[in-house]
Amino acid sequence: MEEQAPGKSMEDVIRQDGRYPPEAFAFLHEGLSKAVAGAHGDKPANEAGQRHVTGQQLCFALRDLAVERWGMLAKAVLSKWNIRETLDFGNMVYLLVDNRFMRKTPEDSLEDFRAVFDFDEAFCGRWNFELKE
Questions:
Q1: Which residues of 107-116 are buried (b: 16+ CB within 10 A; e: fewer)?
Q2: Which of these, 86, 103, 77, lies nearest to 21 by C-alpha position?
Q3: What are the structural domain ranges in the chain?
Q4: In this predicted model, what pLDDT tens digit does every residue of 73-116 receive, in sequence order?
Q5: Which of 48, 87, 112, 126 could make an S-S bridge to 55, C-beta 3.0–4.6 Å?
């Protein structure tokens, strides 16, 4: 991917890329906060001022946040934002990494986001209703 010109806003980068709307990135940010809190709690950041989470931790936090927020409609909301698999979360993260809005460690990879969970199982399989006669 081409490096963006300095001074370009995150919103400009997101809109220029065009794969996911800005609302999806706001959701990503909320999920990142949830993942960091879940992984680190109140522990202080490391020497570099970071509290790192893995791609898998972020995916699970986003799954949980989507279910908390939208329940049975979670998959539909994410789909409306062109998010249909966990790799889409990774594509969003790496768009921000490539444009220096987020950082990664040498161990991090886009592959960390591949097939972390199945959207049908995560968002549709949770709802089992029984009708009693």
A1: ebeeebbeeb
A2: 77
A3: 18-40+50-123
A4: 999 999 999 999 999 999 999 999 999 999 999 999 999 999 99
A5: 112
Query: How far apart, in Å, do the first and last CA atoms of the chain sit?
Result: 58
DSSP characters over 27-65? HHHHHHHHHHHHHHTTPPP-TTS-----HHHHHHHHHHH
HSE-CB for 93 with a 13 A CA cutoff:
27
Distances (CA, A) of 119 to 43, 48, 50, 85: 32, 35, 30, 6
pTM value?
Answer: 0.84
Average pLDDT, the chain: 87
Residue in 21, 31, 128, 11 with CA at minimum distance from that of residue 86: 31
Task: Give dist(CA 49, CA 63) in Å, integer.
Answer: 26
CA dihedral for 48, 49, 54, 59, sign (positive or negative): negative
Name the DSSP letter for residue 120. Answer: I
Phi and psi dihedrals of 56, rounded to 5?
Answer: -65, -45
